[in-house]
């Protein structure tokens, strides 16, 4: 690899690193391109050259972390569906395939770092741009896993799936963000460092919640 290519890659990575840190600390709307260039020690022309716009930069920041995770998600779902080509998949296995790659991110070469806080910003800041960014970063995942979940759980509506995943992704983000809240709430009985236990509980929590939405609606009908 030539020195020129290395320099271009280094510049792009510095912009992405600076943007990720500032977006997670300040939010997307409150962070200006000028702040990002100052943090990355580059000029505005470099940002415009690599990313063209602030929204495109946000997408690139998200995709840098989500890209390898989403590839792994789709690979796990493909394997699950190929194992049972004529049968509906088990709901827990679909949910596991969705969440497992986040927990094994370090094995995929992805350092989550500020990412849980960054996604929290994404889910809470207002603006039409959020829908566009999420569509580019997660649109294919939502479609594939939504279809698999509806095959696994007949009667599951898109609105049920949306609510269920909102609650579950929020729970996952709280766990990944760390802190002492789990030990406090469990009165010291749970260890947040046990990722396998956390994943198992998240899968069971999500699956039970989705089933409850379907059965609860049927009982009230």
From the alpha carbons, calculate the radius of gyration and give it in angstroms. Answer: 20 Å
CATH topology value of the largest domain: Tetracycline Repressor, domain 2
What is the helical fraction, as a range of percent? over 70%
Spell out the CATH superfamily of the largest domain.
Tetracycline Repressor, domain 2
Number of domains: 2
The CATH class assignment of the largest domain is Mainly Alpha
Quaternary organisation:
single chain
Find the structural class using helix and strand composition: mainly alpha
Average residue pLDDT: 86
Strand content range? under 5%
Number of helices: 10
**Total number of beta strands:** 0
Give the termini distance in whole angstroms: 64 Å
State the major sheet: none
SSE topology string: HHHHHHHHHH
CATH architecture of the largest domain: Orthogonal Bundle
The shape is globular
Low-confidence stretches: 1-6
Structural overview:
With 221 residues, this protein is mainly α. The protein contains 10 helices and no strands. The chain has helices at 3-26, 33-40, 44-51, 54-83, 91-103, 115-124, 128-152, 158-177, 181-185, 195-220. Helix 1 (3-26) crosses helix 2 (33-40), helix 5 (91-103) packs across helix 7 and helix 8 (158-177) runs antiparallel to helix 10 (195-220). The longest helix is centred in the first third of the chain and has 30 residues, at 54-83.
């Amino acid at each position: 690899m030539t020195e020129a290519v290395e320099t271009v890659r280094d510049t792009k990575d510095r912009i992405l690193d600076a943007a990720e840190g500032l977006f997670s600390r300040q939010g997307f709307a409150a962070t200006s391109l000028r702040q990002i260039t100052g943090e990355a020690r580059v000029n505005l022309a470099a940002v415009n050259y690599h990313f063209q716009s602030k929204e495109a930069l946000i997408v690139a920041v998200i995709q840098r972390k989500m890209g390898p995770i989403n590839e792994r998600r789709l690979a796990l779902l493909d394997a699950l569906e190929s194992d049972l080509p004529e049968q509906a998949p088990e709901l827990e296995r679909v949910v596991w395939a969705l969440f497992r790659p986040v927990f094994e991110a370090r094995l995929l070469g992805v350092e989550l770092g500020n990412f849980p806080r960054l996604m929290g910003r994404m889910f809470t800041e207002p603006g039409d741009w959020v829908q566009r960014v999420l569509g580019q970063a997660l649109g294919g995942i939502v479609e594939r896993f939504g279809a698999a979940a509806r095959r696994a759980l007949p009667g599951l509506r898109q609105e049920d799936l949306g609510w269920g995943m909102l609650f579950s992704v929020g729970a996952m983000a709280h766990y990944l963000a760390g802190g002492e809240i789990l030990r406090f709430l469990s009165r010291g009985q749970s260890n947040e460092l046990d990722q396998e236990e956390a994943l198992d509980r998240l899968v069971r929590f999500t699956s039970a919640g989705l089933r409850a939405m379907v059965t609860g609606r049927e009982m009230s009908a």
